[in-house]
Amino acid sequence: xxxxxxxxxxxxxxxxxxxxxxxxxxxxxxxxxxxxxxxxxxxxxxxxxxxxxxxxxxxxxxxxxxxxxxxxxxxxxxxxxxxxxxxxxxxxxxxxxxxxxxxxxxxxxxxxxxxxxxxxxxxxxxxxxxxxxxxxxxxxxxxxxxxxxxxxxxxxxxxxxxxxxxxxxxxxxxxxxxxxxxxxxxxxxxxxxxxxxxxxxxxxxxxxxxxxxxxxxxxxxxxxxxxxxxxxxxxxxxxxxxxxxxxxxxxxxxxxxxxxxxxxxxxxxxxxxxxxxxxxxxxxxxxxxxx
Amino acid sequence: xxxxxxxxxxxxxxxxxxxxxxxxxxxxxxxxxxxxxxxxxxxxxxxxxxxxxxxxxxxxxxxxxxxxxxxxxxxxxxxxxxxxxxxxxxxxxxxxxxxxxxxxxxxxxxxxxxxxxxxxxxxxxxxxxxxxxxxxxxxxxxxxxxxxxxxxxxxxxxxxxxxxxxxxxxxxxxxxxxxxxxxxxxxxxxxxxxxxxxxxxxxxxxxxxxxxxxxxxxxxxxxxxxxxxxxxxxxxxxxxxxxxxxxxxxxxxxxxxxxxxxxxxxxxxxxxxxxxxxxxxxxxxxxxxxxxxxxxxxxxxxxxxxxxxxxxxxxxxxxxxxxxxxxxxxxxxxxxxxxxxxxxxxxxxxxxxxxxxxxxxxxxxxxxxxxxxxxxxxxxxxxxxxxxxxxx
Lengths: 291, 392
Description:
The complex is a heterodimer of chains A (about 290) and B (about 400). Chain A has a 5-stranded mixed sheet with strand order 2-1-5-3-4. A two-stranded antiparallel sheet of chain A has the order 6-7. Chain A has about 290 residues and is an alpha+beta fold. Chain A contains 10 helices and 9 strands. In chain A, a hairpin with an 8-residue loop joins strand 1 (about 25-35) and strand 2 (about 45-50). Chain B has 11 helices and 20 strands. Chain B has helices at about 10-20, 50-55, 60-75, 90-105, 115-120, 145-155, 210-220, 280-295, 300, 335-340, 355-370, and strands at about 5, 25-30, 45, 80, 85-90, 110-115, 130-135, 140, 160, 165-175, 175-185, 195-200, 205, 225-235, 245, 255-260, 260-265, 305-315, 330-335, 345-350. Chain B is about 30% helix and about 30% strand. An 8-stranded mixed sheet of chain B has the order 6-7-5-15-16-17-14-18. Chain B has a 6-stranded mixed sheet with strand order 9-2-1-13-20-19. In chain B, helix 1 (about 10-20) packs parallel to helix 6 (about 145-155) and helix 1 (about 10-20) crosses helix 11. Chain B has 2 domains: about 5-40 and about 145-225 and about 330-390, FAD/NAD(P)-binding domain; about 80-140 and about 225-315, D-Amino Acid Oxidase, subunit A, domain 2 (D-Amino Acid Oxidase, Chain A, domain 2), CATH 3.30.9. Chain B has about 400 residues and is α+β, with helices and mostly antiparallel strands. Chains A and B meet through helix 1, helix 3 and strand 9 of A and strand 4, helix 5, helix 6, strand 14 and strand 18 of B.
């Protein structure tokens, strides 16, 4: 076994349930939310079809689309958990359809719904723009590999790899603050004058212009959501010289102050990112013109 | 300004839209599903050095090394630039070694030899049965995030891109294409689906990849497309940092492409006429893991994260002895000259990473047909980052 396999940190979970995969095909019901833009006319359509042990939820959706209903709308691209397009709610939990084996869910009825916190464009497709409105396109996406190597090939200074976060939106949907199910009481005002309950009140402290101009956060919660803060924390690691500017965003009116520590983001992530930890990192950092 | 309609929303279409915008055309893309949901997104992510093709397909090899160097510069944030190794494990591999080296040299692909000890220092996960290794300028890319910058940049320049919009007809009158008949697949606010409408176009490009034959049939013409699906397997864990190739002629289970905390193993190949029904035969999955574990033993014990199929858009070639030897180069057909249907082009063949070159060749022909004198600028024009797509 290679060092990489032995020391790879927190290998992301492939199979959400640990139940052994059944060997035989089974006929089950796939219940899919259908709707128009904005979730108009939302209802469920049932599709009943045989499912093989090796079929992912995405494989089954592809079969329904090709064989039964070509108007079934869902996003997909890479089929191996790299692109981040096929996140949806599968029996009430955020997952990637491409790496969720259908039969391993152990259910006779599998219900598929679009992500929450982001506007529905139709059926299982949501509009990702509110999330990307808070992730600067110029932030990097490559990082050094964790493991120290015993050598590098000619022309390579250090082994690098792509970031863990595939920007799928699962954490945005799972976050109770973002999706509107948060019922925890507002926090006590913190020392240093940061009042999490009234984000607008701190704008007088001189936020950068781009922060104030950011489009509305997902579903009007005021919170940019976990994924942009996770990306921001990675950018802080990449560009320590831009710390003040980045912390302005992270501690700004759409930033970490909204987090209520539900940790739903970290639990939902299909890619081994822990956005709740990134958010706490940002919360604990001094700077950003607030401390 | 001539209006060009592109059928298909894969990497070729995105790169073509970008190229045509830079040359001053008006452009619209129509894609039946999500962008890059055909073969583009399902790519194993190998930024080929071209070495894999050098012996049996030198034209494709030269295309690969040239585009490899260009794409590294245009989209560095979509890549892991850690180079690749070819590894020899038996006498047959060793016999192939000199042919490979010579063919790489002929195609201007730089190589560097390593002893087994040196190779295992670079990649401790390699089997201790390595007899020889050779470095080539392979890299890994994220297929979605390599293609998306082309689409983002094209849209920022004025192109429109319509996903979930199916082309159901090509309007041909008096031997010339006039436009497209389209069907929307998403539901309208009034609850209706399948609304159809017409969109005029001065010129239509069929860039539908493995589906190009079906699209061409809408205009009553034929293209020799041969969908060639294959199975790929993603296992948990990054078993290497470099891409690892088996040092033998192109075959199954000869490539390991590390990416993030996964390793992608590939690839099998068969031929089909129907790119919509792609099986993922379990015996192919088992074979990819077994063959790749000969190079890196850790492949055998790792949990499988995903197995999937992708349909290569091969150019039909009855002369090839094996599917793996069908040329991976590309060609652009002017159906005005071939079939008396003017204003229709088909771009077929090629590979995920030759998207820019395919676009350049197609746009050159479009310029010739429209009498526009505008050189290609996509080699040097910077691309927007992938995330800019969501702001374009």
